[in-house]
Amino acid sequence: MLTREELERYDRQIMIRGVGEEGQKKLKQAKIIIAGSGGLGSSASIYLAAAGVGRIQIVDHDSVELSNLNRQVLHGDEDIGKKKVISATEKLKKINRGVEIEAIEETITEANVSQLVAGFDLIVDALDNLPTRYLLNKAALAMDIPFFHGAVYGFEGRAMTVIPGKSACLRCVYQGITPQEKFPVIGVTPAVIGCIQATEVIKYIVGVGELLTNRLLAYDGLSMKFTELKVKKDPNCEHCGHLVKEG
Ligand SMILES: [Zn+2]
Q1: How far is the CA of 25 from the centre of ligand 1 (A)?
Q2: What is the reported pTM?
Q3: How far is the CA of 227 from the centre of ligand 1 (A)?
Q4: Which of 160, 131, 167 is nearest to 244 (CA)?
Q5: Beta strand residue intervals within the chain, DSSP E
Q6: Labelling 25: which of 2, 15, 100, 213 has CA 20 to 30 A away?
């Protein structure tokens, strides 16, 4: 049930055809995990908390540094030195006290990934490196949990939604490992991509629209163009090749 306060708070989105009170209840019941509380994680979590996603777990092992603040808008000057998950929890609770925020201060590894994502309805990839993305992608597929990918570089970004067994996974699209190094980024890029991920998450939970599956959306802020690359589930993919689902 939605309370009177919730009906008022979410009035404008409940008005959307296909959302309604039923959609809002689904958002309230949803349990999601956001991996990373940096640029993408800031943008995605702010809007998902504001939309009334009932339970949001944030996983990050880093502390806030001065050089994060150009893009990681959940954190500010007063948070420098603080654990990002703590800073994120404080801010998100201010945005929406009706949402349950859980902070997990951990590095995602092969050993803990399954345990971290178990029981969640979906995973938001707000990470900054491919090796950890592969770990999450693999765990998402193994545990049949939808996976919402986002990545940024400079003025460019990408997004894709993975429905295990049904659509192309991250590994079908990306090959190899890129070196883990400091890369350039302007804050507006993760803002755009994080919002695209949040939009996909809301659509998935409510059950409206057409998901960004089998399509890699590439955004170029400099030319201000969105390009869509058609992708296919690779039957020989080492992560998802063995998975087949009807429908
Ligand atoms: Zn695959």
Answers
A1: 32
A2: 0.97
A3: 21
A4: 167
A5: 31-35, 55-59, 100-104, 122-125, 147-153, 156-162, 215-220, 225-230
A6: 213
